[in-house]
Amino acid sequence: MNDSSWGAPPHTGYWGPTDQGAAQGAAPAGPTYDAHDAQHTRPMPIVPEVPAHGGDQDDDRGAARLSGPLFREEPERTPPYDAQRTPPYDLPRAQAYGHDDTPRARPHGAAPQNPEPMPDSSQPAPAPQKKSAGRDLSAAIGVGVGLGAVIVASLFIVKAVFVGVIAVAVVVGLWELTKRLDERKGIKAPLVPLALGGAAMVVAGYVRGAEGAWVAMALTALGVLVWRMTEPPEGYLKDVTAGIFAAFYVPFLATFVAMMLTADDGHRRVLTFLLLTVVSDTGAYAIGWRFGKHKLAPRISPGKTREGLLGAVSFAMAAGALCMQFLIEDGTWWQGLILGFAVAASATLGDLGESMIKRDLGIKDMGTLLPGHGGIMDRLDSLLPTAPVVWLLLVIFVGSG
User: Fold this and answer.
1) Mean pLDDT rounded to a whole number for the chain
2) Which residues share a beta bridge with 374?
3) Contact yes or no for 298/254 (Cβ under 8 A)
4) Quick one: three-class SS letters along the chain?
5) Residue 370 dihedral angles phi and psi, to the nearest 5°
6) Phi and psi at residue 201, in whole multiples of 5°?
7) pLDDT recorded at residue 87
8) Beta bridge partners of 297
9) Pairing between β-strand 295-297 and β-strand 301-305 as defined by DSSP bridges
10) 236-247 and 159-185 are packed helices; what angle lies between their axes, rounded to 10 degrees?
11) Predicted local distance difference test score (pLDDT) of residue 367
């Protein structure tokens, strides 16, 4: 470096040449400035030369980043694209711009690869499917009529025979429930003490009333606890809990039907109980199937609707008024309205309760014994919780007579 250049007179241009040699093409010696300005200036950083074509883009960008604070870093340029669509350029170019993780999709305005077939206006539209009832109605009606004939015959001929029908239904229902618990949850509720205790519970309720039913219930629970002790202790708590629940749910609630039968007009009370429950279920099914649109409890039973519940209440209240007026001694029609409303509510809750059990077990029906209906428990679901309600209201309205 020429030492004389540091003391040269001020230049006319900021970076311009300061001597004649520079004007004639000699290499400039560098910028000229006085010593006073040296405190406020700093040397120009050296910028590496960027190749015009064919260079590595990543290396070029890296060099620009190291150029120093006097150079503003330019953002990486990418082809314009819409945020809702993938850029209309091919994958290699997308990778070159750093968008290799962008999902591929068809360009804007391009036809889809698998377009939906357009409906042919020349062909007639398919006929709308009829609303299905969801069961075999002919089989359901046939089985229902057969069961009704057996029940009515035993009810009006010999009361003790009807008690036997209740006991058989209880034992079969317990067998279905315990079998499903074992198959789906691995819960082994002891069936032998449940069956023996359940049958004894029904008979005790008929012979000794409520006191006999409670004593039989307590002995059945004790029998479940002792019977389960003969097996390994693993799962003891859940097995005996399920057994006591089954004893209360099936035979104990059925005992109220036997207690209704002990009255002088017991056969009429039981017939009223059965008619109101069946009419409530029929009204819910008919109105819900025809007009149902608003779900009642979609997480529990998707098939039940609010319109069906209104149908159950309407049908049951009308039937209750008729039954209390013409079947029950000293009964009145307004008592039948209350009775019908209570039956519709309890029958619906009982149906929902068993639906919760079946949904927890992951099954549709408790059994296959009754074609068109499922199992015995699928027919007892609304009857069992309704029995104590009807028994209590009849005792309040007309006494236990």
Assistant:
1) 78
2) 370
3) no
4) CCHHHHHCCCCCCCCCCCCHHHHCCCCCCCCCCCCCHHHHCCCCCCCCCCCCCCCCHHHHHHHHHCCCCCCCCCCCCCCCCCCCCCCCCCHHHHHHCCCCCCCCCCCCCCCCCCCCCCCCCCCCCCCCCCCCCCCCHHHHHHHHHHHHHHHHHHHHHCHHHHHHHHHHHHHHHHHHHHHHHHHHHCCCCCHHHHHHHHHHHHHHHHHHHHHHHHHHHHHHHHHHHHHHCCCCCCCHHHHHHHHHHHHHHHHHHHHHHHHHHCCCCHHHHHHHHHHHHHHHHHHHHHHHHHHCCCEEECCCEEEEEHHHHHHHHHHHHHHHHHHHHHCCCCCCHHHHHHHHHHHHHHHHHHHHHHHHHHHHHCCCCCCCCECCCECHHHHHCCHHHHHHHHHHHHHHHHCCC
5) -110, 105
6) -65, -40
7) 47
8) 301
9) antiparallel
10) 150
11) 85
Q: Which two tokens stand for residue 88?
A: 């209309």
Q: How many CA atoms lie within 13 A of 113 on its CB side?
A: 3
Q: Which two tokens stand for residue 148?
A: 């009704």
Nearest by Cα to 177 from 245, 236, 227, 226: 245
CB 299 within 8 A of CB 290: no
Comparing 113-117, 266-270, 396-400, the range with the smallest average pLDDT is: 113-117
136 vs 316, which has greater pLDDT? 316
Return the higher-pLDDT residue of 124 and 279: 279
> Residue 163 carries which side chain, given as an amino acid letter?
V
CA gap 323, 331 in Å, rounded: 9
Q: Which of 257-261, 351-355, 372-376 has the lowest mean pLDDT?
A: 372-376
Place of tokens 């890296």: 62
Structure-block tokens of residue 391: 């028994």
Query: Do residues 30 and 1 lie in contact, with contact meaning Cβ atoms separated by under 8 Å?
Result: yes
Query: What number is the average pLDDT over the span 136-154?
Result: 77
What Rg, from alpha-carbon coordinates, does the chain have?
Answer: 44
CA distance 338 to 324: 10
Q: What is the pLDDT of residues 21-75, one digit of tens each?
A: 333 444 444 454 444 444 444 555 555 554 444 444 444 444 444 444 444 444 4
Nearest CA to 380 out of 142, 160, 166, 188 is that of 166
Closest-CA residue to 35 (of 7, 15, 5): 7
Residue 24 or residue 352, greater confidence: 352
